[in-house]
Design goal:
Length: 353
Amino acid sequence: MRSFIYHGLPARVIFGSGTLAQLPAEVERLGLTRALVLATPQQVGQAEAIARTLGARSAGVYAKATMHTPLDVTEDAMRVVAERSVDGVIAVGGGSTTGLAKAIALRADLPQIVAPTTYAGSEMTTIIGETKDGRKVTQKSLKVLPETVIYDVDLTMTLPAGLSGVSGMNAIAHAVEALYAQDANPIMDLMALEGISALSRALPRIAADTLDREARSDALYGAWLCGICLGAAGMALHHKLCHTLGGAFDLPHAETHTVVLPHAVAYNTPAAALAMGKVAAVLGAGSAAQGLYDLAGRVGAKRGLRDLGMPESGIDTATDLAMANPYWNPRPLERAGIRDLIARAWAGEPPVA
Ligand code: NAD
């Protein structure tokens, strides 16, 4: 018999194509009169177009969102929030922009509407990671959970092929770790396997044609489900390792997840054989680790941490860091195995159980 605790997070999700047209109604529904639209500098045009649709309810645009939510950017944004009497934020972008919205919500407890344009899944979680003096600190708070999420497939059509692939693999990583989480439960299993299935079908098609609307829709649907997994289940070796590597060597987020995932899965499979067997079946592969490695290849992702800029000398440093702060993992952390995992990920070799 399986015992479990299921704890769902509240969410209002609007999904489809052209759904961003419902934004003014959502702004009104939440009673916002001065909504600030957030974006990265790369997506400022999109943010300005959105602000225009809000008319008098817009408090303009703040387009300085940055990867890993640096504190100085948040403090600058908080000044704008105060100056313009902002009473709600709208994030249009990936995890970096959602991160800024969450950082503002954490401080000012303002409602958030998030329109994701990548597959990172942050919009479904109470997790916020912030960086100060090069150190990323993560915490959980219900305050940062968005009030409304508008998934509009149209917003993802411009995501370049390369970023689509690694962003989708990042999403799959959430679902994979939810399946062997300490607090895994049957509802989460259903979402995780459905999410992996949708993304693994869609990502190679997007790699071949970024304008494949059906594949884009499947990918965004899968990313939503995987985001729920990230928000509801505790993450283990894979996410901790990516966090450590990203912070220590300033590696790009989604790309690092893509490289590490097959190796973390290979390490954990002996202790999570049933769950990883289900992933292998969904991927149509002999093993989950090999299936994920092959999928990363099919989306054209870089295979090794060395290709992302990590020096070889970093293998031992990363091993030390990974062993320094123990946490729950289905398989206990063994130094030799962890070093081997990191070394293989660094070189871009296939995973070995
Ligand atoms: P990102 O938000 O940094 O976006 C990468 C780049 O792609 C940016 O320049 C962005 O403007 C651009 N971009 C995004 N969508 C686009 C589109 N549709 N068309 C064209 N360009 C587009 O990347 P990400 O991988 O989504 O987010 C990574 C960040 O999110 C990291 O800091 C990570 O830690 C965080 N994150 C947090 C959580 C959480 O639960 N707190 C979950 C996942 C990721």
